[in-house]
């Protein structure tokens, strides 16, 4: 339902944690009220609408795509949900409240008005398959855990720099490495580590790396001089480090559990073969791409819609003779991050991707800008594979570049 008929009733819902304001418009007749965040209350309200407007279709405008309220409203054949971008609604609201004022009942009414005027341009929310929703939730939750771990790791490094900087010189690729965690839980300061002696330190390090590296680490610790002899500073910072390391250890374990669950689930998805064919992508990346694309093949009108929705396409602003091109910041950051990270992974596994990335660098682009440009190219390919339900074929794509006389093909040959 992307047009209004005589049987269409408009509904605007300004959602909140506990109580939602709603506004219903049927021609000139309008009603409004409040709805409690309760399963029974929501179902009773839907039945009330059906009784008041028999044989009608309800177009519902709401500024979210997730949550208990959305779950309760989806699945009803006579309810079509239209998610409204909060930024778009904020701009629309300013036309009626110049001072920036906001109230929930008024917002519910404005949502109705917005839906009435722009329904043809809005896309209804479709129910994804349980597996797609599961993968999307797990991928997003895992990423949140990774971001939280990063925050704790930054805090850990900051504390270590004040009293125990030798840990940062032990050669760990990541501060959350298992051997760093094991070491700091046992020896949270230099004095304790040196008191343990070479034999115990060597035993700890032997289990997690080469003997040569273990000897280097032991010697570094034994030869070190404490940065500070302030006993209070050392004691309190040691306690803080143990607390942070314990948290990071928990994050490590949970992130691994998520990764294993995602890897187990993603292979069951009907689109797995499409995303598995992409060079350089892991099962974690596969799950994030499946979440980004969804099940509904009408979700994106074309590749350009996908590029804009994920923030990969630049934003062009033109006024008179002036034209500005900037990054598109108003997007779902998780989706933009997904495609940019995949572009980076593909460089080592795809000949044309490597050639194109080098071409962008040679033009003076930064690595980040070059990866974003590569992601832009990849999204056109991914969109077509997804639409046609066929895996990506590197050889066929390179042959196509050759036939069309693409300069990228010449770069591959060089």
TrEMBL record:
<dbReference type="GO" id="GO:0003677">
    <property type="term" value="F:DNA binding"/>
</dbReference>
<dbReference type="GO" id="GO:0004803">
    <property type="term" value="F:transposase activity"/>
</dbReference>
<dbReference type="Pfam" id="PF02371">
    <property type="entry name" value="Transposase_20"/>
</dbReference>
<dbReference type="InterPro" id="IPR002525">
    <property type="entry name" value="Transp_IS110-like_N"/>
</dbReference>
<dbReference type="GO" id="GO:0006313">
    <property type="term" value="P:DNA transposition"/>
</dbReference>
<protein>
    <submittedName>
        <fullName>Transposase</fullName>
    </submittedName>
</protein>
<feature type="domain" description="Transposase IS110-like N-terminal">
    <location>
        <begin position="11"/>
        <end position="165"/>
    </location>
</feature>
<feature type="domain" description="Transposase IS116/IS110/IS902 C-terminal">
    <location>
        <begin position="273"/>
        <end position="358"/>
    </location>
</feature>
<dbReference type="InterPro" id="IPR047650">
    <property type="entry name" value="Transpos_IS110"/>
</dbReference>
<dbReference type="Pfam" id="PF01548">
    <property type="entry name" value="DEDD_Tnp_IS110"/>
</dbReference>
<dbReference type="InterPro" id="IPR003346">
    <property type="entry name" value="Transposase_20"/>
</dbReference>
């Amino acid at each position: 339902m992307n047009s209004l008929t005589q049987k269409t009733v408009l509904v605007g819902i300004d959602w909140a944690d506990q109580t939602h304001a709603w506004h219903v418009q049927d021609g000139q007749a309008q009603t409004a009220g409040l709805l409690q965040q309760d399963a029974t209350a929501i179902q009773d309200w839907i039945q009330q609408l059906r009784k008041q407007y028999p044989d009608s279709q309800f177009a519902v405008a709401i500024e979210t795509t997730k949550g208990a309220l959305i779950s309760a409203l989806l699945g009803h054949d006579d309810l079509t949900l239209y998610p409204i971008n909060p930024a778009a609604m904020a701009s629309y609201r300013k036309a009626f409240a110049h001072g920036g004022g906001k109230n929930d009942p008024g917002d519910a009414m404005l949502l109705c008005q917005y839906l009435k005027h722009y329904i043809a341009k809005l896309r209804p929310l479709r129910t994804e398959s349980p597996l797609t929703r599961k993968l999307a939730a797990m991928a997003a939750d895992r990423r949140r855990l990774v971001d939280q771990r990063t925050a704790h790791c930054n805090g850990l490094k900051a504390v270590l720099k004040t009293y125990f900087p030798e840990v940062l010189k032990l050669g760990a690729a990541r501060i959350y490495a298992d051997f760093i965690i094991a070491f700091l839980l046992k020896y949270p300061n230099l004095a304790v580590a040196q008191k343990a002696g070479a034999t115990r330190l060597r035993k700890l390090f032997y289990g997690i790396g080469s003997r040569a590296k273990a000897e280097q680490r032991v010697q570094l610790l034994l030869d070190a001089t404490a940065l500070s002899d302030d006993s209070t500073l050392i004691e309190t910072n040691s306690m803080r480090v143990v607390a942070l390391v314990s948290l990071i250890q928990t994050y490590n374990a949970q992130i691994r559990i998520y990764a294993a669950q995602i890897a187990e689930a993603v292979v069951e998805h009907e689109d797995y073969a499409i995303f598995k064919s992409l060079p350089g992508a892991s099962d974690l990346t596969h799950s994030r791409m499946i979440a980004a694309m969804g099940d509904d093949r009408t979700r994106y009108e074309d590749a350009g819609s996908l590029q804009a929705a994920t923030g990969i396409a630049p934003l062009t602003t033109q006024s008179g003779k002036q034209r500005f091109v900037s990054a598109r910041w108003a997007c779902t950051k998780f989706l933009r991050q997904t495609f940019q990270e995949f572009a980076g992974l593909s460089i080592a596994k795809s000949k044309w991707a490597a050639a194109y990335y080098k071409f962008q660098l040679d033009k003076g682009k930064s690595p980040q800008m070059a990866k974003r440009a590569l992601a832009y190219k990849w999204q056109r390919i991914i969109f077509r594979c997804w639409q046609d339900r066929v895996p990506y074929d590197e050889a066929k794509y390179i042959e196509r570049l050759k036939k069309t006389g693409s300069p990228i093909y010449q770069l591959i040959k060089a």
